[in-house]
Each structure stands twice: as structure tokens, then as C-alpha cells.
Amino acid sequence: MNIQTSKEKEMPAISAGRRHALRLLLGSMAASLAAAFYPVLRYLVPPAESNSAVNAALAGTIRDLKPNSAKTFHFGNRPALLVCLPSGEYRSMSAVCTHLGCTVQYRPDGEQIWCACHNGCYDTNGRNVSGPPPRPLERYEVHVRGEEIFVSRKQDA
Amino acid sequence: MRATETVRQWVDERFDIEELLALARHKTVPMHRFSIWYYLGGLTLFLFIVQVCTGLLLLLYYRPSAGEAFESVQYITSQVKYGWLIRSIHSWSANLMIFSAFAHMFSIVFLRAYRKPRELTWVSGMALLFLALGFGFSGYLLPWNTLAFFATKVGTSVPGQIPIVGHSIMLLMRGGEDVTGATLARFYGLHVAVLPLITFGMLGAHLLLVQKFGMSVPPSVENKYRGTPGRLREMRFFPNFLLRELVGWNLVLAVLLTLAVFLPWELGTKADPFASAPAGIRPEWYFLAQFQTLKMIPSKVMSMDGEVLGILAFGLAGGLCFALPFLETLLGRRGSLWVRVGAALGLAFLGSMTVYGHFAK
Amino acid sequence: MRNRCFRVLLTMIVGLAALAGRAEVTARPDSPPPTAEAGGYVDVHAQKGITCADCHGATPAGAALPAIPRERIPQLCGSCHSDVNRIKKANPSLRVDQWAQYKTSVHGIKFEHGDKKVAICTDCHSAHRILPASDPHSSIHPKNIAATCKRCHSDEEYMKPYGVKTDQFAGYVESVHSKAMVERGDLSAPTCTTCHGSHGAVPPGAASVAEVCGSCHVFQAKHFGEGPHKQVFADLGLPGCVTCHSNHRIKHPDDQFIGTTKPAACARCHKKTDPGGRAADAIHDRLLYLDHEIAGARAVLDRASRSGMEVGDSQIELSQAGDALMKARVSLHTVLPSRVEEDVQAGLKITSKAHAAGEAALHERTQRKRELLIPLLAIFAVTFSLCFYIVELERGGN
Predict the structure, then answer these.
(1) Does A6 touch chain B (CB under 8 A)?
(2) Is the entire prediction scored with pTM above 0.80?
(3) What residue numbers bound the domain in which B350 lies?
(4) What residues in chain C have per-residue pLDDT under 50?
(5) Do A43 and B68 make contact, defined as CB atoms within 8 angstroms?
(6) What ipTM does the predicted assembly reach?
(7) Looking at the domain that runs over A51-153, which CATH code has it been given?
(8) What is the C-alpha separation between C156 and C163, in angstroms, rounded?
(9) How far is C303 from chain B (nearest CA, A)?
(10) Residue B51 resides in a domain
């Protein structure tokens, strides 16, 4: 079936070849523009780090921590502490000292959390017990799912 | 090309496409010295399509709660691959679209394309302009940053001044007495569901009306070709005018990409409802003229509250804009002149107030 | 007959003297007419069921209570408060060594020698409004202690005979310690009694000042002990911490506090050219340098972050550099540039890493601008070919 469009009927024969070439050019250029969809496709693929890293984060795995030890991890954009008590219980709190913002560390020998800057001490509940810190460390909730340990901010009602 | 012929035949046997195609083939665009303004409508449409596409993509990662909105936009711009590009395009395209819509509207006024029989096309177009402003206002709050928060606070307090119904309107807008997460949820619903639904309907109506009545020709051109109707050149829409439109759309796309890369949209700082408003809070440029005007009205004008007077004046002006085609008929013989003078004054006022508002302390 | 008159006269004189003694209740009257409940706060003795007669002695109903002479008060209070068995019944955790401590204090020693102006129990605790220290209305609540001591110690007239300065309260009120208590509500911040003791109050001697400050400022005291200043100060009889930081008007030191240009503390003894001055300037410069580097790294990371690059991890690591600077400001108490340099180096390692990460992120951003060329080229190619196509299309006279 030869359906001729009105365009083709009016076109003089000499530019038919030219039009073919042009169509080809246009087609290939359009294809390259379609390749501009590449960013869109990359966008659709979810990134490795989950969106909820602000309010919850994967702090580590069970194998990471032995009893009476701790590790520092990133939570939001501040450091946080995940402690494994000698009893095996996990606790998590902010690692930002409430005195002047230094990063605190866990001391296995005293079972307390200590700030090396000015000798501030907190207990394993995050409460400030001695030294300059005026306030306790912010506590987080710990959820253990299989092998993985998740930490999230305390949810208020 | 045989493949396209086969497909076309298959469709035509079932849906009778040929009639529609014939209609499309007959659509023409008049060519005269003002024809360049015909491109603005399609440009606005193109920018709207860009908004819908980038908006859908942003929807995949955005979270509409006061606690997570800012972080989710931060996530999009820093973690998601090309998220920064999609977001900046969305923000820039919004501004370009509103500018294009205003330009389209003013070109219609000055080329007098609102005359009979196109009154309803004008009304639907005006509605689309207000919808676009609504999109801009609701979308602006969504990143939940300081600027947006306080701009929304100011922006929703203005309708609150309307006598009798003002407070109820403000409550409806804010979802409460203050701007909170409830406001965000409401604006989000508006921005992604309510306004798009209404806009699609209104846009459909607008485009149908344009197809029905064809392209309007300004009176001066009409007069020129009055005696010789055949002399006015008509260009075919498919493919000639459309190809030209595509050129324009491509160039604008290039502009958008360049803007997104060289002038990326800032994220700012997360909104803190308990902090005091930073100095120099201003709405976006498309509300700046009204904002500046309201600031400049004295607090008492002839025993009436100045701000209320200003708001009512704007309401009146808006109403007049909608009723423009009918106004011209009402104003009689010199009606068109009044309309054009009024529009020119309005444009000058809006333009100068916007500039002034930008530079004022 | 004469003997009897003499005895009557003697009794009258003694009676008059007793009356005079009775009128002198306290040297510094502090309370309105005695009442168990004053100002709505119940006195702790009244709460425990101790009556007026328990201190003043039994009097017939309606008769005025005899005032207790000032010189008998410490003994009177001590008669209960040093008795372990008595106090145990009322409050098992209350100490019972207050009187014993008081007797070792400056107040106590002077009191033994007959000085009636010095503070006794009721001057600080009040006589009839005694509240536990945990009660915010108590005169001995941490927030109120300085105001209690100030009643005498800021009174120039009163303190003149002792040749003691009266600027302590004025100085303390401007100090970081006072601000921590008053503005931040930190009740563990030091007040007068924290350093001087309460019942056994003595001003710490030059040799022991560092011990007092060091009981909280552990690291600073440790570092001071490791440095040359310790011996030098001891030889010169200068008190450890107070020489630089003052004892009462302790302000928050900034990096300008060390060096040889005013308002640096070092400038008081050292000149630019002597070894100590050179060390001070060296430390000053290194601290400023690290601070500057941290600010620079932070600025780069902020710029990168605002441009949409992900630099959160680097920003967290940069905060460790702040920790290092903090530690350097503590280790400078050794006044040894080499020791301070250890901390500074630790900080600089972090800042250079953070800076590099920021620059890399910005570089990637510039890459984006170059990457933009590809789609732009594609768009222009399409546009160009469109135009060409339109021209060709209409060449046939469409």
C-alpha cells in the first residue's frame, strides 16, 4: 500500500535524496538526545546509602563488637557511639561531648565513657557523672535485626 | 518506512485515525510580523512538561514531613546520581515557566487575541496562570528551608487580612494557626495531586479551545489584509511550525541545563520555627511586586487599614484580569485602547515594583 | 549594810551587762523576728520538730525568748551537729564534722581568739530560716553561696581591720565559673566554698592553689606539673594557676591569651626576645595556624556541600581536628612548644586530609561543568539539523 503524504507529492525529486540524508541525520541526533535520558536512568537507581540515614543508621554487625567494647559510627552528620556492655547489651548515644564538642570514647577498664579533652566522664547510660560536661549524652534506640545492629533516634509521640 | 505504514494502517483500521490526522494537517499558523509571539504558548507547555517529568522523578525520593523534608532534598542533591541536576532543573524551570506564562499572557493582551470568540480561551489561560503561581507558591515550601518557611509565613498571613473570611482562609492554607508540618503536608498534597489534576483539566480545555478557534490574528494585521484574504501567508502547523517550535524548545532546554550546572539552586539551612525571621525575607520574584506594594502602602488610608485595602485592590485587579474580554465590550468604542493602556500600566507597575522589591532593604 | 549594798550594786551591774549581752544577737542581723516559718519556706529544724525551747531554753509561755549570745552559737549548734548518734536519727547521711572543721578555719581560729566579727554558723545558714543546700531558697544553695559570703567579704568598711581585699565577689561574678552556674545552670560549677572549703574555710596557699584548680582541671594541672613553670613558680613563691588566670575573675582564655603581646598573660613576665617569650610566641603561632587550617578546610567542605557534593564523612572527620586543637590548648600548660606541636601535628594531618577531600569534591563539580558540554553539543546538533531540515523542507516551495 503506497500511502503518499501530501508532503511527498509536492516535493521535487531532486531533494528526495537530501531529505533522506537529513532524516538520517535527524534520526541519529534524536538518538543521541535520547541518550540524554542516561542521567534519568541513573537517577532512578537508588544510591547505596539509604535515605533514612538521618534518623536511623546501620551501626554495625554483631560480629563487629565483642562484649565490653565500643565502636564509633556516623549518624546524621555527627559521630555516635555503639557500646556493647559486658553483659552483651547494646547501647548507643551521641559521641559529641556536651562540654565543648570533642568526640568521646568508651573505656573498658572503667566501664564508662570518657572525653579526652577535659577529662569528662559519663556512665554507660550517657549521664554526665564527673568533670566539666553539663548535660548527659543524647541516647539513641538500638534495634538488632539478625546480624545487623540499627540505631535510630528516640521517637517521641 | 514500511514499518510505520503498517502500524498506521493497523491503528487506522480500528480507531479511524485518518480523520484526526486530516484535521491536524489542516491546522495552520498565520505568518506576519507578530508571529514570533505565537511560540510562547508552546514554550510554556514545554516547560510545564519539564516540570511534570522532573517533579515525578523528585517524588521518588522526597519525604513530605517537617522532620525529613530538608534532609531528603539534601539527599537528592548529594547522594542520588544526577539528583542535583533534576532538582536544579525543576527549580529553574519553575521560574522560567512562570515568566513564560506572564509573557504569553501579555502578548495575548497586546495582540488582542482575547477578542470574540476567544473569551473562554482567555479565562482558561488566566486560570492556568493562577494555577502556575499556586504551583510556585506550594512548591517553594517543600524543601523546608529557612527562606521558604518564612516566605510562606508571610505569604499565608497576607490572605489572613481579608475582612471576615481572611482568618478562615489562612487556617485552611496553613492547616492550623501557624506554619507547621501540617502546612507542609497540605502544600505537598496541593502541589503533587490537587493542582496537577485541575491543571490537566484546564490545560485540556485551553488547548481544545485553541484548536477550535485557530490562531488569532491581531487587528492591525487583519486590517492590512482585509481586502485580500489570500495574501496572508499561512504556515502549516505539522510539520513546519512544530519543527520551529522544537528548535525553540531545544534552545530553552540548553539554557535550563546551563543554568542548572552553573547556577545550581541553593539548599540553604533547615527551617527552625522557633528562630526569628532572618532580615530581608522576601518571596520569590513572581510575588515580589505585590509584596513590595503592600509594604509601601501606609498603615491607614482614609480610616481603612492600608494592608487590607492593598489586598482587596489586588483581588479586584485579579478579577478584572479574568474579565478582560468582557470589560472591553463593556467599555464601548474605545474599550480596546483602555484595555491596552491599562495592561501597559499594569506591566510597568509590576515590572518596576519587582525591580524595586529586589533592591529595597 | 555596806556589803549588802555592794552586792545589790554588783548584781545590778551584772544584770545590766547581761542585758547588753542579750541585745547583741548577731553582728550582722539577717532575719526578721524569729519564726519557724519565714517567707513560706519551712525551716528544716522546725520540720524535724525542734522547738524554740530546744535552743533558747525553756521559758514561761508568753515571755520573750532570751537571745543566744553570739559567742555561744557555734558550741550550741555543735552540741547536736557533732553528735553522731543524734544526727543519725534525723538524717543518716549528714556529716558531723562541721564544728571540728570550723575550728581549723580562719573564721574559727579568730573566733576562738575573741573576734566577734567573723562568721559563725548563723551568719551563713541563718538562724531561723535554715534550709538544706539542695533547696534553691537556701542561703547555702550553690547559686546563693557567693552572695552569702559577699555580705562580709565585699564590705570594705567591715573588712578594713583585717587588711583583706574585698574585690573577690566582683571578680567572681564576671568569671566563667559564675557564668556557668548562673547562665547555664550548672550547679557543679565552682563557687566560693568549692575552692576555699565551707566550714574549714581557708584561702589556699600559694603552693596548693594548683591542687585546688587541678581537682577539676586535671589535665591542665598535670601538664603544668610536667613543664618548667612548676619549679620556677615555686622558687618565686608564685601560685600555680592564679598567676596567669587570676583566682576570682577567671575569664575564658582565647588564643590571644598566650604570646608576648597584650593581653597575653605571658607578656606580664616575658619579653619577645627571651627564651620564654619565644616559646610563648611559637605556641601562639601554632595554635592560630591550626585554627586557620581548620577554618579553611571547613570552608572548602562547605562550598563543596552547597554545590551538591556529598562530603558528610569528611566533615565528621574534620571535627576530630577540632578535638586536636582543644587538646593543644590544654597541653600548652607545659609551656613546651615541642609538646604542643604533637597535638598540632595530629590536627594538621586531619585538616590536610579534609581539605584534599573538599578540593576533590569541588574538582568533581568542575567536571560536571565540562560534562555539560556533551548534552549541550547534542542539543545544538539536533537544533542545527532541525533548522537545516526546515530549510530543506521549505525549499520545495511549501
Answers:
(1) yes
(2) no
(3) 290-361
(4) 14-15, 17-36, 38, 398
(5) no
(6) 0.77
(7) 2.102.10.10
(8) 10
(9) 11
(10) yes
